[in-house]
Design goal:
β1 and β2 form a beta hairpin. It is built from five helices and two strands.
Amino acid sequence: MNDEEIRRVLGLLYQDDTLRTFASLVLGATGELSPKALRKLENGGLAARDESGAWRATPERFRDLLRAHAEPRRCSAPRSGSCARSWWTGG
């Protein structure tokens, strides 16, 4: 992932409509969701439709961003506080 993709994802969450819609999907509140915001989130990789056609959040996009941009680190104790980020992102 490049810097443009990171800016795009963060830009989506900066906008009130897409942030609210993403939060609703994460929380499972799929009532009245903005079709425009859903399309934006889908284009940005933050939302997708499941097999039944229902919308769902795709938070794994954040994990992908972290992995792509995490600084590689070596840890002797991978679950210690100073190495937690490296361990969590697989670095």
